[in-house]
Design a protein that fits this description.
Phosphatidylethanolamine-binding Protein, five-stranded antiparallel beta sheet, 8 strands, 9% helix, PEBP_euk, PEBP-like_sf, PEBP
């Protein structure tokens, strides 16, 4: 799993969003049966519905928190609203998926306006079942601060995809 971190370094997820960590769990994120791979591009129209996020490994006594963010808001060249929070689910039992957890912040559809945006899913292992307090704002969210405030430590898995604004079909 150590090689799983290389695309996160190349995509500047490590640095912009996360500190370096060693992945210890497998997380599978799928939109309409299409798996998310680091750095692959997905169209905004394909990520409208909540993805299925499976935690693979662990056991039913382990609990996880999932965070989805966009570090490129409003645009990658000047991301002054970094990070924008799209989703938080806590208390996900190991070996299950996010639907078994508690949604602390509802899923917000990715809508990149300017440039190519990175959408990052980060999985943290909780020390125990706990209540996660939602932040006061989705903008200027900090995954690092959120993890520290909720005693989550370093991530155990992360994956990201790229998306950009879709152009409308032109009619003549």
């Amino acid at each position: 799993m150590a090689r799983a971190i290389e695309p996160l370094i190349a995509g500047r997820i490590i640095g912009d969003v996360l500190d370096s960590f060693t992945p210890t769990m497998k997380m599978c994120v799928t939109y309409n049966n299409r798996e998310v791979w680091n750095g692959h591009e997905l169209y905004p129209s394909t990520v409208v519905a909540k993805p299925k996020v499976e935690v693979q490994g662990g056991d039913m006594r382990s609990f996880f928190t999932l965070v989805m963010i966009d570090p490129d808001v409003p645009g990658p060249s000047d991301p002054y609203l970094r990070e924008h929070l799209h989703w938080v689910v806590s208390n996900i039992p190991g070996t299950t998926d996010a639907t078994f957890g508690r949604e602390a912040v509802s899923y917000e559809i990715p809508r990149p306006n300017i440039g190519i945006h990175r959408f990052v899913f980060v999985l943290f292992k909780q020390k125990r079942r706990q209540i996660i307090s939602p932040p006061s704002s989705r903008d200027n969210f900090s995954t690092r601060n959120f993890a520290a405030e909720n005693e989550l430590g370093l991530p155990v898995a992360a994956v990201f995809f790229n998306a950009q604004r879709e152009t409308a079909p032109r009619r003549r």
